[in-house]
Design goal:
By secondary structure, the protein is an alpha/beta fold. It is built from 9 helices and 13 strands. The chain has a 9-stranded mixed sheet, with helices on both faces. The chain is globular and about 115 Å long.
Length: about 350
């Protein structure tokens, strides 16, 4: 019995030590049965050590998100997709490091588009501060830069609000991200990394997460074509592009058209949620995400009610348009046409030498 009680006390002491390191309030952890609670007490309280109720934890216990001592309603960034927000316990944490992972290089556009969507949500809620996008020369050479016109049309981001920092080495990019993460003059910091570099370890991500918590600003870590490795980010989302649904019109879905941008989002790691997969569509007009599941049911229902297309397909008539011939930027090489020859009076003028002066 003594050995069992000692083992329980040791386990609970380790749990409390881990909770202190991770930032969880220790007084909100429930002690196992028979284990003592060494939480600090008020010395003026009328509770003596001999009181049998002194070590009984409160009945209404609250388990808070790790790393956040208090979780107010505005502590999370809601995407607008109820399924994903509910699975994440309210959304993505604002003052934290969030990892957005792309398994292959071809997913770089989807990962960047999803990150820009999150930035659009942040700018929509608060002051329109600039956003710093940090990356190495390798990632910008491979994935490119966002399109300025697309920033404004799809995300409502002005080109001058998105600042880029191209670092020659990963060490320089990490240093720039750590210095920028502590600045409150930025709405968010985006760090884009390619592959699985050795310097992007648990220690480096802990520093980024701590700076984000101190400044109260989000830091998004974009991992392109890398293996999932341990990081200090509370949430890891795995992104890939999803097929776009047909564009919706008054008469129903327009066959052969391309609708809103879509993403397949998988919860790879979360301290409060179970793994799950969602298909989200970005609404550029409302600046919010919508789940594809409800939209697919609506599309299937409309197709069942209207099985034929609104506009019939074109058919070959009796007077088809003539086929277009070869189109050249310049005239074909050869003798000019008869109408292009100079007149006899112009030929003599052409042969006369040009006067000087």
């Amino acid at each position: 019995m003594a050995t069992s009680a000692l083992a329980r006390e040791t386990v609970f002491a380790l749990r409390r030590q881990i909770a202190k390191i991770e930032g969880t309030l220790p007084e909100r952890l429930q002690a196992p049965a028979g284990a003592p609670v060494d939480a600090p007490r008020n010395p003026t309280a009328d509770v003596t050590p001999q009181d049998p109720t002194a070590d009984v934890p409160p009945k209404n216990l609250t388990i808070v998100r790790r790393g956040l001592a208090v979780a107010p309603p505005d502590a999370f960034l809601r995407t607008g997709a109820e399924g994903l927000d509910t699975a994440l316990g309210g959304g993505l944490p604002k003052a934290a490091l969030s990892e957005i992972h792309g398994a292959a290089t071809r997913d770089a556009g989807a990962v960047a588009g999803f990150a820009l969507s999150l930035v659009s949500l942040i700018l929509k809620q608060g002051p329109r501060l600039p956003v710093l996008w940090i990356g190495t020369a390798e990632i910008f050479r491979e994935a490119g830069f966002p399109y300025a016109i697309g920033l404004h049309r799809l995300f409502g981001i002005e080109p001058e609000q998105l600042l880029f920092s191209e670092a020659p080495r990963l060490l320089d990019a990490l240093w720039t991200a750590e210095e920028a993460a502590r600045m409150t003059a930025l709405a968010a910091v985006v760090l884009e990394i390619r592959g699985s570099p050795q310097r992007l370890d648990l220690t480096a991500t802990r520093r980024l997460h701590a700076r984000a918590q101190s400044a109260g600003r989000p830091v998004f870590l974009l991992r392109q074509a890398g293996e999932p490795e341990p990081t200090a980010a509370p949430v890891r989302l795995v992104l890939s592009a999803a097929p776009s649904a047909p564009r919706q019109t008054i008469a129903g879905p327009l066959a052969g058209s391309i609708g809103r941008p879509a993403f397949t989002v998988s919860i790879g790691k979360s301290r409060t949620a179970l793994p799950g997969q969602f298909t989200l569509e970005w609404n550029p007009d409302e600046r919010s995400f919508e789940e594809r599941r409800a939209g697919e049911r609506r599309i299937r229902q409309e197709r069942a009610e209207n099985p034929v297309p609104v506009v019939s397909a074109s058919r070959r008539g009796k007077d088809p348009a003539p086929a277009s011939g070869a189109i050249l930027a310049f005239a074909a090489v050869g003798s000019p046409a008869a109408g292009d020859q100079p007149s006899p009076g112009e030929r003599a003028a052409h042969r006369r030498p040009r006067r000087a002066g």
